[in-house]
């Protein structure tokens, strides 16, 4: 089965975008690309990721959790129906995983799911996967220089094949055959008097007839009659290819800066979103390109342009710079998403294991309490750099520092650690309760009060109910609720688990501060 909208094209890599770059591929290639090669497909806006999980032995569709960015996907009933097993009584649905919503489905639903995605959004290979996608469908990468050289070579071969043209003229009712080379025939036309009428030889090929007509139709400028076939190609075909090449770079440059106007050192680019046109001028406002985007062919088409080789050369340099910056930005965003998903559960696992055995499946966790940095190293990696995750815990959450996680690593780690934590949830809560509860009690005891309000947290002791509680100002919910019983001691009544962030704030920040406070106040009390 083939899908007309399913294409391997480039979204955030820059190279010449030709119609051949848009190439349909079949279901078997989708399976090979994701399941066997472990690569990821995307929608054009890259909001949807389509991949395969070896751990779950299922395909995964991952989209943003927010309704604004992901709602178009997880509210699509036809997509959910396509991903539902016919033997199931309930329709498949997206599940919440951190800041993403994910949809799992089996091989048997692959054809229906891909057909739905292809029909409404399309699936695309992007970034570093472009080369692999082209190789799979047998498409060679073509750059601008190669295209130009090919056009010139084809023209030269055509000249060799049509080296002699036979033209018949009737003079005084007598047939006269003249043998002219292509260059001689053109030269002969160029020196005829203005009163003589130009006729097209019967033996001219269609290719030559079209180029000859282009010259003959322009009566305003007699110099245009001297245009050679090569000049006509350069004027029409090559200018269109330059527009496609330059417009794609300029468009992605505008996307990168997040504006529809950008003024560079040599050129100014402006995109009119209403008319979907792109204009480029020189720094002194001289127009060099005007192009419109064809939604049917997904190509930029020349309106009125005069791009020179110098312009193309300049944008080739821009291409290299912007490509690297976009890839860096895309990688930073992706790694931040991985960190937000994984750091909380890696930190929980680190607390659960403690000093017993910090390794699992070849991975090793580390926590720098002073700088609040969490690390994860892959001891099985065959490289000198084994650290694949480094994240800093800030008041607002986890911040990526220098992580190098891949999609499959993130999925594998999340699934493995979640299964371990689900089994040991009560054990982890008990450990944190035993650490945090005494510190909360010490705060009230040191300040000789039943109610204490801090910058981030507050605490209270109720004498009547014999209950100690503490809550976060930001989350507005209690993270600690403990009851004191004379016979059985402290009992944990907390409805919400104590998080890694809260536990380490109390043990690594508040507890040392309390000790320093006691050191200062004890001598004064003794005096």
Describe the protein.
By secondary structure, the chain is of the alpha+beta class. It contains 13 helices and 24 strands. The chain has helices at 27-36, 67-74, 77-82, 110-120, 130-137, 144-161, 182-190, 206-217, 229-257, 309-353, 407-423, 425-446, 500-526; strands at 2-7, 24-26, 41-42, 49-53, 58-64, 95-97, 100-105, 165-171, 174-180, 261-263, 267-272, 277-282, 287-294, 299-302, 359-360, 363-368, 373-378, 387-394, 397-400, 451-453, 457-462, 467-472, 477-485, 489-492. The strands form six sheets. The chain has a five-stranded antiparallel β-sheet with strand order 3-4-5-7-6, with helices on both faces. A hairpin with a 4-residue loop joins strand 13 (287-294) and strand 14. Helix 9 (229-257) packs parallel to helix 10 (309-353) and helix 10 (309-353) runs parallel beside helix 11. It is elongated and about 105 Å long. Residues 7-24 and 163-223 have low confidence and may be disordered.
Oligomeric organization of the protein chains: single chain
Share in helix: 40-55%
The Cα radius of gyration reads: 35 Å
Query: How would you characterize the largest beta sheet?
Result: 5 strands, antiparallel
- Helix tally equals 13
Mean pLDDT: 78
Strand order of the largest sheet: 3-4-5-7-6
Number of strands: 24
* Strand residue content: 15-25%
How far is it from the N-terminal to the C-terminal residue, by CA?
Answer: 89 Å
Shape estimate: elongated
| Structural category | alpha+beta
Contiguous uncertain segments of 5+ residues: 7-24, 163-223
């Amino acid at each position: 089965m083939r899908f007309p909208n399913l294409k391997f094209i480039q979204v955030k890599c820059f190279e010449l975008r030709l119609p051949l770059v848009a190439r349909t591929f079949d279901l078997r290639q989708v399976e090979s690309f994701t399941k066997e090669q472990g690569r990821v497909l995307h929608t054009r806006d890259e909001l949807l990721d389509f991949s395969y999980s070896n751990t779950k032995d299922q395909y995964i569709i991952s989209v943003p959790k927010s309704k604004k960015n992901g709602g178009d996907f997880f509210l699509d009933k036809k997509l959910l129906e396509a991903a539902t097993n016919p033997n199931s009584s309930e329709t498949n649905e997206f599940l919440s995983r951190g800041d993403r919503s994910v949809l799992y489905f089996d091989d048997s639903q692959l054809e229906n799911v891909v057909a739905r995605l292809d029909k409404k959004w399309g699936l695309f290979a992007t970034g570093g996967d472009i080369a692999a996608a082209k190789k799979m469908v047998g498409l060679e990468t073509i750059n601008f220089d190669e295209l130009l050289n090919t056009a010139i070579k084809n023209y030269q071969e055509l000249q060799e094949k049509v080296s002699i043209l036979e033209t018949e003229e009737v003079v005084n009712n007598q047939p006269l055959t003249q043998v002219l080379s292509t260059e001689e025939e053109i030269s002969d036309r160029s020196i005829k008097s203005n009163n003589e009428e130009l006729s097209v030889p019967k033996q001219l090929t269609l290719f030559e007839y079209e180029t000859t007509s282009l010259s003959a139709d322009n009566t305003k400028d007699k110099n245009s009659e001297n245009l050679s076939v090569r000049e006509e190609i350069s004027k029409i075909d090559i200018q269109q290819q330059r527009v496609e090449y330059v417009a794609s770079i300029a468009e992605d440059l505008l996307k990168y800066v997040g504006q529809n106007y950008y003024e560079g050192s040599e050129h100014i680019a402006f995109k009119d979103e209403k008319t979907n046109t792109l204009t480029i001028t020189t720094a002194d406002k001289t127009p060099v390109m005007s192009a419109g985007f064809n939604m049917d062919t997904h190509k930029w088409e020349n309106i009125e342009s005069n791009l020179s080789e110098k312009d193309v050369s300049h944008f080739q340099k821009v291409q290299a710079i912007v490509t690297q910056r976009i890839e860096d930005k895309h990688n930073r965003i992706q790694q931040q998403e991985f960190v937000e998903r994984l750091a909380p559960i890696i930190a929980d696992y680190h607390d659960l294991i403690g000093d017993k055995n910090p390794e699992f499946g070849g991975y090793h966790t580390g926590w720098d309490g002073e700088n609040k940095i969490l690390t994860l190293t892959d001891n099985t990696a065959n490289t000198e750099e084994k650290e694949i995750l480094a994240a800093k815990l800030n008041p607002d959450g986890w911040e990526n520092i220098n992580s190098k996680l891949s999609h499959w690593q993130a999925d594998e780690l999340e699934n493995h650690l979640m299964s371990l934590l689900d089994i040991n949830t009560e054990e982890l809560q008990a450990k944190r309760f035993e650490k945090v509860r005494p510190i909360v009690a010490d705060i009230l005891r040191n300040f000789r009060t039943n109610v204490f309000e801090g910058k981030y947290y507050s605490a209270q002791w109720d004498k009547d109910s014999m209950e100690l509680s503490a809550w976060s100002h930001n989350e507005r919910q209690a993270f600690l609720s403990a009851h004191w019983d004379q016979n059985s001691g402290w009992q944990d009544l907390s409805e919400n688990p104590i998080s890694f962030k809260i536990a380490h704030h109390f043990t690594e920040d508040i507890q040392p501060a309390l000790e320093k406070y006691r050191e200062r106040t004890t001598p004064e009390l003794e005096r």
